């Protein structure tokens, strides 16, 4: 066998393994539909060859599945759209199924998954160039989250400590800027405490760990909302908003509905979006916050994409801005990722993140850990004293 043919076969096996692992590990916990589709893709030599025409960094299942979903949402892959819609209906019905009907519901979902898998492979083979083109110009997004449950009490705490009556929010790595509406959502904690806007169309929940409640103080008025990202998403652009939807599995109606509500809320007061390198743009963003307002810079799982050098430069930029005013930085990052933030002695890669607060004031720095969180903010242990 020619060496090139052997190499192609080896790469195909590797790609097949990537898709099967995604199905059995990642999708198995979140989407029965994508579990079945990813397995089918891993078992189809034709599908794998089509995926291989995409740039190497764009062949991951999350990207290819999102590109296929995007084609379905635009109506360019109607058969796939129909199969996905059916799978979403089945999933919603299964959520209310009785115990006696569980077996039948599971069987029905499996049949729907098989139909969706066939439709996905057919769309991929017929529209390979379109799938690859979408993958090449996009990056996967995960914007609907529970991050506000972590950000709200931390921002309110920052404002309380410096006596601020108003804040200007600057979200680094903002994507669509949904975190910038932290004061406009309602957040219910497992102890019954409600923060934010109880009448908001966007409601989030958070489970608490430990006996210490989150602080009860309300966030002061937000007068400035600025997002910084190398590739920000304009929620008022239908194509951009559709891509955010495409990045969610079609069989997750609750997540889709939550994202729709978040997008609609953000569109009523779109933030100012700055595109480019966050470290370089940070001084400009800070200058846009009125002098009598506390700037609060937020990072939520954004700094892990920065080199260590850039993280230190980011810290230096905050320090520079504080020569004439107080600047706050609220972070939710993996253990040891956020420079200067204490980690409670936790080890790196320990499975949770540290909620940090740093206050910069005339070249002095006060930094502490406020708590720990898991599942991107859906599980929270508040540890700071009153």
The helix tally amounts to 12
Molecular shape: elongated
What spatial order of strands do you see in the largest sheet?
A: 3-2-4-11-10-9-8-7-1-5-6
- Secondary-structure-derived class: alpha/beta
- What's the β-strand tally? 11
The end-to-end distance, rounded to whole angstroms, is: 71 Å
Largest sheet: 11 strands, mixed
Low-confidence stretches: 3-7, 90-109
Helix-residue proportion: 40-55%
Beta strand %: 15-25%
N-to-C SSE series?
HHHHHHHHEEEEEHHEHEHEEEE
Radius of gyration: 23 Å
What do the pLDDT scores average to? 90
Verbal overview:
46% of the residues lie in helices and 19% in strands. It has 12 helices and 11 strands. α2 crosses α6 (102-126), α5 runs antiparallel to α6 and α11 runs parallel beside α12 (308-321).
List keywords for this structure.
386 residues; alpha/beta; 11 strands; disordered N terminus
């Amino acid at each position: 066998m020619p060496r090139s043919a052997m190499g192609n076969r080896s790469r195909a096996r590797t790609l097949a393994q990537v898709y099967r692992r995604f199905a059995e590990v990642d999708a198995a916990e979140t989407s029965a539909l994508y579990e079945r589709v990813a397995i089918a893709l891993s078992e189809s030599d034709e599908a794998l060859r089509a995926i291989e025409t995409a740039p190497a960094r764009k062949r991951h299942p999350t990207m290819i599945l999102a590109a296929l979903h995007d084609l379905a949402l635009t109506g360019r892959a109607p058969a796939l759209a129909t199969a996905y819609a059916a799978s979403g209906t089945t999933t919603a019905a299964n959520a209310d199924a009785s115990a006696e009907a569980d077996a039948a519901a599971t069987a029905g979902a499996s049949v729907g998954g098989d139909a969706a898998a066939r439709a996905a492979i057919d769309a991929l083979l017929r529209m390979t160039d379109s799938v690859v083109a979408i993958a090449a110009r996009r990056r996967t997004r995960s914007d609907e989250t529970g991050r506000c449950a972590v950000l709200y009490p931390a921002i309110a705490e920052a404002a309380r400590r410096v006596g601020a009556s108003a804040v200007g929010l600057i979200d680094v790595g903002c994507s669509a800027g949904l975190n910038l509406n932290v004061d406009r959502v309602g957040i219910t904690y497992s102890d019954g405490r409600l923060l934010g806007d109880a009448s908001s169309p966007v409601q989030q929940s958070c489970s608490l760990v430990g006996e210490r409640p989150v602080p009860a103080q309300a966030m002061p008025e937000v007068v400035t909302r600025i997002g910084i990202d190398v590739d920000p998403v304009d929620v008022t652009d239908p194509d951009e908003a559709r891509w955010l939807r495409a990045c969610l599995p079609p069989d997750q109606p609750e997540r889709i509905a939550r994202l729709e509500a978040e997008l609609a809320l953000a569109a009523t007061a779109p933030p100012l979006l700055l595109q480019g390198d966050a470290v370089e743009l940070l001084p400009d963003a800070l200058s846009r916050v009125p002098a009598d307002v506390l700037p609060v810079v937020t990072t939520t799982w954004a700094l892990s994409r920065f080199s260590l050098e850039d993280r230190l430069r980011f810290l230096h930029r905050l320090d520079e801005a504080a020569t004439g005013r107080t600047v706050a930085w609220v972070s939710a990052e993996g253990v040891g990722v956020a420079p200067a933030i204490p980690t409670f002695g936790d080890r790196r890669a320990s499975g949770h993140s540290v909620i940090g607060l740093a206050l910069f004031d005339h070249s002095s720095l006060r930094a502490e850990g406020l708590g720990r969180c898991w599942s991107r903010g859906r599980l929270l242990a508040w540890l700071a004293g009153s």
